[in-house]
Design a protein that fits this description.
globular, alpha+beta, 3 helices, three-stranded antiparallel sheet
Length: 210
């Protein structure tokens, strides 16, 4: 049998190990940078951190899932009973609430930060998806304590528009290959700070009800 020289396979082995190392770095070390500070949104919203909630904001109350939240006049509520989804929306900005969860994959981003906040008196971990400029444009929240009508698969997804959005693969594949899932994507562009503040204000009004 004809032997294959190790010199032929060496570049392939190096490439595979390099890609695997990059995957581990971006999907473990880069996504596990946890902030120590815990921000109580209900408390800070009444102080200088956020402007006071305008009196003309509307209130949405859901008796089935036992929660309520306030939102600006120019936002709208969309209920989708098929997916058990409640969405607060304005243009490209949205807050999606899934009390029973929904099977899906998170965005394959590499720039993710974890921090802890307090919503409705309950400490939760929040994953913030960042642009390469450090601005958050999406967030993922899951409650560990919740009403009986919620399930452990619950989550809240927040999404903002990235202005002048550009997406690049974190890992360049050989031969011009596409950016496969799990290799990560970098997001470039800017996010309006005013929209971020509105989202934080909305979250500060979220609370579970008896």
């Amino acid at each position: 049998m004809k032997r294959v020289s190790i010199k032929i396979w060496l570049p392939v082995i190096i490439l595979v190990l390099s890609m695997f190392g990059t995957f581990i770095y971006f999907n473990w070390f880069k996504t596990n940078d946890v902030f120590e500070e815990v921000v109580d949104l209900q408390a800070t919203s009444q102080e200088k951190f956020f402007p006071q909630i305008p009196e003309d904001w509307k209130k949405y109350r859901n008796e089935e899932y036992g929660f309520e939240v306030r939102y600006p006049q120019d936002w709208k509520i969309v209920e989708d009973r098929a997916d058990s989804r409640i969405e607060l929306k304005k243009d490209e900005s949205s807050v999606l609430i899934f009390p029973e969860g929904f099977a899906t994959s998170l965005i394959d981003a590499v720039n993710i930060k974890e921090s802890k906040i307090v919503i409705s008196g309950k400490e939760v971990t929040i994953k913030s998806f960042l642009t390469e400029g450090g601005e958050w444009w999406a967030r993922f929240i899951r409650f560990q304590e919740y009403p009986n009508s919620w399930t452990s698969d619950n989550w809240i997804w927040i999404n903002l528009e990235i202005i002048d959005e550009k997406i690049e693969c974190a890992v360049t594949l050989p031969l011009g290959g596409e950016c496969g899932y799990g290799l990560g994507r970098k997001f470039f562009g800017t996010v309006e700070q005013a929209e971020q503040e509105v989202i934080d204000q909305i979250l500060s009004t979220f609370k579970f009800i008896e």
